[in-house]
Amino acid sequence: MFRKQPFLFAAAPVLAVAVLFSGCSPQPSHPNQIDAFDGATYDSLTLAHGALIYLRASISSSYPKYVPLFNETAAAYATAVDAYAVFRTEPSSQAAVAADVASLTTSIVALENTVAADMHVSQKTERDIRQKAQHIRAAASSNLSLSDILSELEIAAAVAETIPAAAPYATLAAVIIAATQRALAARTAASGQPIDLATLTPIAPIP
Questions:
Q1: Theoretical Cys-Cys bridge with 38: which of 13, 34, 105, 145, CB 3.0 to 4.6 Å?
Q2: pLDDT by residue (tens digit) across 57-68?
């Protein structure tokens, strides 16, 4: 599950570098975490929550074609949060939590890949960005750990930044960038704070 390693287009040239390096500094432990897995899982779910809350509003109002995929992702998030809540009282259930967070990651990847395809980003561009992310993380200290959810959100934002501001799909790209910024902001706000399951609020499906 884990690997070592205000949206304005004026900020776009620096955001790609910023997000690709955002995982290269250790996250402070949560004072009430059970262990490193506990803290990392909470951080992953916090990231997912921040992104999905923003995406829900945008998809609901402007992009109905993504509703089915979004609802699948929201359901995967709910399953992962429920499993994590059990883990917090029964740490022996770690494997189940890891599997559910992996399923959530798969759902997030499916959603972002669909959006990237609709933005008409070339496969080469996306492949180059993914390779750059891998090289950056390979050069990082082996003591660092970066969640797969963070990786995928960062890559999605970097891909979206390749869309020029005047392009037909610029608004859709801005949504992806903003969702990633919201996720990173949520992660920063929770950094070093006690784990609080109340922050992982349910995300209602879009009707």
A1: 34
A2: 999 999 999 999
Is pLDDT at 9 greater than 80 in this prediction? no
Tell which residue, 32, 28, 77, has the closest CA to residue 196.
32
DSSP state of 32: T
Report the distance separating Cα 80 and Cα 45, nearest Å.
8
Three-state SS letters, 147-183: EHHHHHHHHHHHHHCCCCCCCCCHHHHHHHHHHHHHH
List the one residue out of 54, 58, 52 whose CA is nearest residue 77: 52
* Residue keyed to tokens 């999605």: 156
Q: Is the pTM of this model over 0.90?
A: no
Alpha carbons within 13 angstroms on the beta-carbon side of residue 40 total 20
Structure tokens at 111: 């959603």
